[in-house]
Design a protein that fits this description.
Four copies of one chain form a homotetramer. By secondary structure, chain A is mostly helical. The first copy, chain A, contains eleven helices and no strands. Chain A binds a DNA duplex (21 and 21 nucleotides) through helix 1 and helix 3. Chains A, B, C, D: Pfam families: TetR_C_27 (PF17935), TetR_N (PF00440).
DNA sequence: TATGAATGAGAATTCATTCAT
DNA sequence: CATGAATGAATTCTCATTCAT
């Protein structure tokens, strides 16, 4: 009578939780498989039952970071908001989560950043996905008459640039009090008002961060 | 007749230059002592004549990054400018150097960042020193009547916060076009005008980054 | 009511058949218990119900190779043929099987050779047994008047030597078209005619392989 | 004053000699780097100073086996003999060496065979080289009027086939007394006399091993 | 001053094997 | 009868570091 293998995922998760605990204590740099295994109270070899390789483990850890964010993005995209509100939600929802995480444990937050830097493919995947979704929203916005005379890719990349402080955790970490919902709204307002096809170039020169009261 | 030991320093330097070259080519992650040694055309063991350990080597590399910046800070501090101008110089001078370095070789710049992350004690030392110098300037400013009713530590940390985009290379790397002299001046103006003891708290909410055209 | 334990043997057999399939696909080198288990659609641990160890499994595989050959040898020995015919049958019967196997799947054949090399004890057992049987036949032949003045051991080993290309699969693999029934008969004829006690040494020089059209 | 690094090759050699000793004692299967290292009285890590990897070590061992044989082949090729004599020398010279080695230590011989099986690329290289040289000789023979109406590749492969028992150590090991100079000469005679373009196909069927008195 | 030689600790990974269920 | 979980020993390989010369 085979035991249910349902726990596999649970164990995987509990391993990752333990690993998080480890990270909380000693940072994310350079821990060895055996260290994690010990922390989990199991043998190295057994860890390999749950993660194909150390690399895979790190990927899973990175994935874990993005799980909730991904769900949120998808939900936002699926919602029926008008384009501008959808875009706001798109950024604000995720901002809220990141902020919460940071406030919960800044050091852990930073450690996840580090993992992200070291396993950038995973991050890159998330970024690409987010870019894709943003493009979808921008397309909707265009259908509603916004961003006239602009090309969609150009628009997406400009928005991405201006919105960095509310997206990019590296920056957020350093500019914490600035990365607020309020400022996000101001930036998006500016974008929706100001971004037209006439003078896209000016923006590279102009104050791309006219973040205001 | 023992030659002056100055050679040692020269060699140390040339090693570090070679290492920089290496980093330029292949990033800063994970190079081994033997790799550096080979690049320098010497034996691993000989490297140990010049650096006590790999750790020490990295520290020296990190220190190297700050050398010029440190000198500049000291010179600025020693100068006879009025407090506000001194503070501007204090930040602008270093900003100029960092900008130059970044423009010279962005990848190398990033690699140094990485080294900095991994050997944060060195960075921390520099930051603490900069904080100290900033405190000195703030004290001078106070003596001149600025920042009335503010405590010095609080003032220093608030200034630090607002001035991040012109200081913190991690942020600079991401917000390159924004981290300009002009914007720096605007920020400092704002600080000198706005920073008074009455409502320090407001700043967390208020536009801490009124960076303008 | 315990079912007859015969099942066990059946399963053992089906495992080995699956293993053979595996070998057909990817050679015999270095497969792991878990690989076999997966191929058999069962757990590693369950394999241990049927084979005490990996070693035992390989032994069984090697044994499998010899099973049919062993039976054949025994039958031939038990038969009532005159010694010379019996000896011919002794070699020709097995040659036929090996040839059939080789022609059926040369790669599998080679893989079994490999297993044989790596688990030579099993092979050795078979060889010793064959030697023993050959000795029996030689004894019968002597009783019939052949090989006069020869010592039985010497005779056996000389015959063995000359008969290698029809016995030793390593050689057969390389000299396939030569290892025919016809040539076998010629060799045996030569042996029965030529092998007398007077000048056993001559054979080292003389035509030990007068294999002819 | 740097110590001479001349010894590197010597050490490499002495390691291989020790390894040979090891092989003599316990066969060639599956020894680990650490086992060799221990036998050599050095640390595993130090072995890596002399061989880039275990694979490289095995390759060197295999290469070692062929060194002398390669030299001999080259010398023979360079010699001024008539084609037929050159071909005889080509095979006989190497046969002599292999025979000597076998007689010196049959078990070691067998172990080298095993290494060869497991690192066939090296062996393959040698075989290809030998094929190439044989082709050169055959070309010379053709220039002298032999093998008329035959294609060179076909001729080479036919010769290779017939000459196996004097070339292929796997076979030699099993047919030791047969793989003599005398028989080699007979085979080559047969080849030079019999191998003509008229009926190349017949040979596959016909007595390719008419090794005679 | 500089070298080559050598090492020991530790890395990831694999695998045969055991055992409670 | 069969499973999944777990392990421990082994393997190859890397690397910072030391030391006699």
């Amino acid at each position: 009578m085979p035991r249910p293998q349902l726990d596999a995922d649970e164990i995987r998760n509990s391993i990752m939780e333990t690993a998080e605990e480890l990270i909380r204590q000693r940072g994310a740099v350079d821990f060895s498989v055996s260290e994690i295994a010990t922390a989990c109270g199991m043998s190295q070899s057994n860890l390999y039952r749950y993660f194909e390789s150390k690399e895979a483990f790190y990927e899973a850890m990175a994935g874990r970071w993005f799980e909730e964010l991904n769900t949120l993005m998808e939900e936002t995209i699926a919602s029926e908001l008008p384009a501008k509100e959808k875009m706001f939600a798109f950024f604000a929802n995720r901002l809220a989560i990141k902020r919460a995480r940071f406030e919960d444990d800044p050091k852990l937050f930073e450690s996840y950043m580090e993992i992200g830097h070291q396993h950038f493919e995973v991050v890159r995947g998330y970024i690409d996905l987010a870019d894709h979704y943003l493009a979808v929203i921008v397309a909707e916005a265009m259908a509603e008459g916004h961003f006239e005379d602009m090309e969609i890719d150009h628009t997406v990349s400009l928005i991405n640039l201006m919105v960095q402080p509310f997206c990019n955790p590296d920056i957020m970490m350093n500019m914490w009090p600035t990365s607020t919902d309020d400022n996000l709204r101001i930036v998006l307002d500016t974008i929706f008002i100001g971004l037209k096809g006439k003078s896209p170039v000016k923006l590279d020169v102009a104050p791309d961060l006219r973040i205001a009261s």
